[in-house]
Q: What sequence folds into this?
């Protein structure tokens, strides 16, 4: 009697007289082996070929930083699921983890993430490496999104690279100056300041005025209120802030074509750094040379600061923490021309067609007017002119949104060219060395210029 | 009967294999293959990548550039040299203090079971805390304004901005490492002390040796192999210092606390320069192997390993 493979297994499992070895070793037939191998091969092939676009996707995963705009969007995704029948999973991390995950996922065979939040600093690197799906045609064909509504500087800083559209702006992080409006309007402070300097206590238009006012405020309050709350943490934090001061004095760090211009403006850089150091020495909280934006937000939120030059999105946090005990209003940075940066939504190019399509549907939905508006009302930040023209949006945070378009339009986009992140970080390390006293201003700036040129040339 | 013949042939085959290859070799083959796949292949890949211009994100093609990464990013790089120096300062300071403190604690517990039962679990606690948590904990402890350390020091008139000062920031990381790893030294050395033979001590006591004399002339020389092993293990561990730097200072202020592991991470994953990072990793591995060889030869460990 010839036993089939199935029979053999049953037989072995029930027959007590076979050897222990035979009990567990059942040989598959050649045909079943080939069938299994073929199935595995087919499975692999279909996986490699990406299903040819006909496969439907019922779930997408978004890689995002754990900050307000992402959390707000995350809370709204049920609406998307309802409309498109696609579940959305958010994986949120800190900035560094998001960057590491994004870099390693785009370099892998197939990305685990369908949608990635992309920072200004990475756009050039990712685009140069052909790691993102160009979406220009999709944007042109869409009746939900349009390039025309985005603030030009935000679009320029993150959405395109060398003429190709890779991402849609999501939320911007332009540096602004936040002042305690209640202190600015307080007659006691106004009179004392006017008596001392012969002019009104008002947001500073130049760095010289800002340093003077911040120092005065710190001294006048015996250090109870810091005139300026800054973040000196090495790397991009210190540098993003410093670039605004440098540009406000007429300097250019890296131009729109990705050319390093820093060295040409050495004098402006030294002057800007002298102001920067003076602020930390005379009016910023002690130890703030190691602070990042959370510490600044906490300090301002606790009512211990008069002004802060910081990413504008955090003024909302500061106000929320401050509550009724003070009012924070956003103004231009001294000298104008702050650094404009933005996060955006992009699609990794190593995805099968069906997943790319689902990812685009999500990005398109996220950027539809009603959803953009809802995101702002729920705690997000605007990147488009149409939402900033909306009265309901303005009324939700008039101290922040009424002049946001002017603030961003007056700024200069941070460089997105490959090497920009390394360049900005390198200069931020030099600034940190200057602030800690390890290097003189001239020495640090010269080293910074050299490091930025090297980073952008490689 | 028909099945007996193949079984007999199989047994003959097994016997032949056993004759050709000792059973201990045959049994270790799977483990060795796995080990090679998990360590040697990545290591070879690392060396290969270090000889190319690969960028984690921008490289569409990878080009062979020989030793260029080694030349420009290690020997001519001020940042890499500075990070190596910082790593060296960290290793020497942390490991030597841990050795002295660990030895003192081990001596206090040596031969006193009751004391050991009470204090050993307490001493072991820091080793149960994950590295990154140790870093975060000490960051908050040393941070001006909220930290317990600056607060207590300010009570006696000492005001230090620990994490903003290049010297003190590195000291803070060393203190965190000492807190975490001294107990390891204590355990290793205590185990060594408990295993020492009693006879030499009794002989020394009979000869009228004092406690200090006995320690330096009898106990310490007999402990050299154990000390060597403990230092050996700690050197390997300390050379990889990374989570504490990441959590406490991110390499700052300036580049004062950048260790070699930290810049390898930053260059490789934050600046996408994976080939540069690979060349630095290879160099550091070779340097560490050389250092460990010196410790091995001079630490009397030939008898141990």
A:
């Amino acid at each position: 009697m010839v036993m089939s493979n199935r029979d053999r297994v049953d037989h072995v499992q029930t027959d007590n007289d076979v050897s222990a070895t035979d009990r567990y070793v059942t040989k598959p037939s050649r045909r079943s082996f080939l069938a299994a191998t073929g199935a595995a091969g087919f499975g692999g092939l279909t996986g490699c070929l990406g299903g040819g676009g006909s496969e439907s996707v019922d779930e997408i995963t978004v890689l995002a930083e754990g900050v307000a705009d992402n959390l707000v969007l995350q809370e709204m995704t049920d609406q998307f699921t309802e409309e498109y029948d696609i579940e959305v999973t958010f994986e949120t991390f800190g900035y560094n983890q998001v960057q590491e995950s994004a870099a390693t996922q785009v370099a892998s065979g197939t990305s685990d993430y369908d949608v990635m939040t992309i920072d200004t600093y990475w756009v050039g690197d990712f685009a140069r490496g052909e790691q993102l799906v160009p979406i220009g045609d999709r944007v042109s064909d869409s009746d939900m999104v349009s390039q025309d509504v985005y603030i030009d500087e935000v679009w320029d800083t993150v959405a395109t690279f060398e003429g190709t559209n890779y991402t849609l702006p999501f939320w911007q992080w332009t540096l602004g100056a936040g002042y305690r409006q209640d202190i600015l309007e307080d007659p006691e402070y106004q009179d004392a300041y006017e008596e001392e300097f012969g002019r009104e206590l008002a947001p500073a238009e130049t760095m010289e005025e800002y340093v003077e006012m911040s120092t005065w405020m710190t001294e006048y309050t015996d250090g109870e209120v810091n005139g300026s709350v800054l973040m000196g943490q090495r790397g991009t934090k210190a540098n993003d802030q410093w670039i605004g001061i440098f540009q406000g004095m007429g300097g250019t760090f890296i131009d729109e074509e990705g050319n390093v211009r820093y060295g040409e403006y050495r004098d402006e850089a030294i002057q800007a750094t002298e102001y920067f150091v003076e602020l930390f020495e005379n009016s910023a909280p002690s130890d703030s040379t190691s602070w990042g934006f959370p510490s600044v937000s906490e300090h301002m939120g606790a009512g211990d600061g008069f002004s802060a030059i910081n990413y504008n999105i955090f003024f909302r946090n500061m106000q929320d923490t401050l509550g009724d005990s003070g009012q924070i209003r956003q103004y231009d940075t001294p000298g104008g021309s702050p650094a404009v940066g933005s996060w955006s939504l992009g699609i990794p190019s190593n995805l099968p067609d069906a997943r790319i399509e689902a990812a685009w549907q999500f990005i398109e939905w996220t950027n539809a007017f009603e959803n953009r508006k809802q995101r702002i009302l729920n705690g997000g930040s605007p990147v488009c002119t149409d939402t900033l023209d909306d009265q309901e949006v303005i009324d939700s945070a008039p101290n922040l949104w009424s002049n946001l378009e002017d603030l961003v339009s007056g700024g200069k986009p941070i460089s997105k060219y490959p090497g920009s992140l390394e360049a900005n970080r390198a200069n931020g390390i030099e600034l940190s060395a200057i602030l800690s006293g390890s290097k003189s201003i001239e020495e640090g700036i010269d080293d910074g210029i050299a490091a930025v040129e090297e980073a952008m040339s490689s | 009967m028909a099945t007996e013949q193949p079984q007999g042939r199989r047994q003959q085959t097994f016997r032949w294999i056993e004759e050709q290859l000792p059973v201990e070799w045959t049994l270790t083959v799977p483990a060795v293959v796995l080990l090679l796949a998990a360590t040697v292949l990545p290591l070879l890949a690392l060396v290969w990548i270090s000889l190319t211009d690969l960028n984690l994100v921008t490289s569409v093609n990878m080009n062979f550039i020989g030793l260029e990464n080694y030349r420009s990013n290690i020997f001519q790089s001020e940042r890499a040299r500075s990070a190596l120096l910082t790593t060296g300062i960290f290793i020497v300071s942390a490991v030597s203090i841990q050795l002295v403190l660990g030895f003192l604690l081990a001596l206090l517990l040596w031969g006193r079971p009751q004391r050991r039962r009470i204090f050993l679990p307490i001493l072991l606690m820091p080793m149960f805390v994950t590295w990154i948590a140790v870093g975060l904990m000490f960051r908050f402890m040393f941070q001006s304004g909220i930290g317990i350390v600056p607060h207590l020091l300010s009570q006696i008139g000492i005001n230090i901005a620990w994490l903003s000062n290049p010297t003190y920031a590195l000291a803070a990381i060393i203190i965190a490492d000492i807190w975490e790893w001294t107990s390891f030294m204590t355990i290793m050395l205590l185990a060594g002390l408990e295993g020492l033979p009693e006879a030499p001590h009794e002989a020394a006591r009979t000869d009228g040796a004092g406690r200090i004399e006995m320690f330096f002339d009898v106990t310490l020389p007999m402990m050299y192999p154990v000390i060597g092993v403990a230092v050996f293990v700690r050197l390997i561990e300390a050379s990889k210092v990374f989570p504490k730097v990441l959590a406490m200072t991110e390499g700052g202020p300036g580049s004062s606390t950048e260790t070699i592991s930290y810049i390898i991470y930053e260059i490789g994953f934050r600046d996408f320069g994976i080939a540069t990072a690979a060349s630095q990793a290879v160099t550091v591995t070779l340097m560490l192997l050389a250092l460990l060889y010196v410790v091995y030869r001079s630490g009397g460990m030939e008898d141990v390993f």
User: Anything to note?
Assistant: The radius of gyration of chain A is 28 Å. Chain A has a mean pLDDT of 88. The CA atoms of residues 11 and 436 of chain A lie 79 Å apart. The domain at 30-173+341-413 of chain A is CATH 3.40.190.10 (D-Maltodextrin-Binding Protein; domain 2).
